[in-house]
Amino acid sequence: MSISRPAFFPTDENVWRVRSFIPLAQTGLYLLFHLALRNFLTSLLRTLPIKLMTQSELLTGAVQAFKTQFGSSPTHVATAPGRVNLIGEHTDYNDGFVLPVAINRQTVIGASLRDDSMLCIFSKNNESFVQASLATLTATKEHSWSNYSKGVAFELQRKGYTIRGANLVINSDVPVASGLSSSAALEMATAYALLILNKISLPPQEIINICHRAEFDFVGVHCGVMDQFISCLGRRGHALFLDCQRLAYDHIPIPEGAAFVVCDTGVGRELAASEYNIRRQQCAEGVRELKSVLPSIQTLRDVSLEDFEQHKGRLGDLIRRRSRHVISENHRVLQSVTALRKNDLSEFGKLMYQSHLSLKNDYEVSCPELDCVVDICAEEEGVYGARMTGAGFGGCAICLVNREFAGAVVRRLLIEYRQKTGRTPQVYLCTAEDGAHSWELS
Ligand code: GLA
To answer: What distance in Å separates the CA atoms of residue 397 and residue 381, rounded to the nearest whole number?
Structure first.
């Protein structure tokens, strides 16, 4: 009787085949499992609700910390927001145009007068305490966070305003060193706190000037005026169109359907301060060289696109590119304001992409991570435009998106930015808020 062998009979040869097939199948299954898991987690993340920024605890936190530090409640409170710039980068110190918004991240200060002339400041964020005599205020390397508040007190006195000693407790949710102007928020909140405590009433431009001088002279950061302006004069639902030459401004309504997603790349901005000053010098050099043919110009703001095209041959490659960024960026801000007034978000978005390219190629203040955020946003549905924002060399990028798609953009950034760069981003859905204010606690 002959027994026919089943199709799969364990001969030595096919036992070997089976054995070598098992690890292969295991690897395949393993890969499939991981792929499925990853897809599952990705889609899960994409559908999770986004946690919006909350600010309600800031005040309670400041008051509680004040009681712990000074044994009583503060008599007054001041708050000032951080900012994100929609367009008009590296134009403020060239007397140009900017278009920032004050955001839903702020610095809160609980404050009370003292009987002496000491400034006693506790930072809840740094868990650190500093005291200094109002008569001998100096910037220090240690507790450098306090220089912004001390600088404001110093500038107020330098301008002839008499202020009394004060206890201040700072609590903030503006991320530090991310390009969202935590320093201007701290200066402005300090100014509002000291002014209300001392019953001094000043016009906004004077307060802005005092805070700007505090940062420029006392702290020694040679920034433009944009950050202090917007922290003071922000308006809910509006962007601030500021002419940094005439210091004239207008609040432009942001169309209902627009949302702003801000992505912090997590890249430190170590280069920002030194490169910022180099860019300022390069702009001044551009002005010096163009002055020989355009004698009436004081800054790059005074150079039109047509004049630049006609005379750019006089400039070397580097200074030509730096100048071209500033001159074209000023033009883009004007176009953006027109687009915003017409509710034309598509046009606004195009200008944002152009701004980013100019900052990347001509001004050279972007970095691969900022470019990566812009590229990711550009692929997502509902996005009008994206660009780096602030001084650059890391920090944040901003994306203008149809409100309905904002959640998807946030989630995509959280997943894809990490996959592409290995860094963990912080992503914020920002709204345009009011500027600084202060009040008495009852
Ligand atoms: C920093 C400065 C601003 C401005 C931007 C670049 O944020 O503080 O004054 O110059 O860089 O637009």
So the answer is: 18
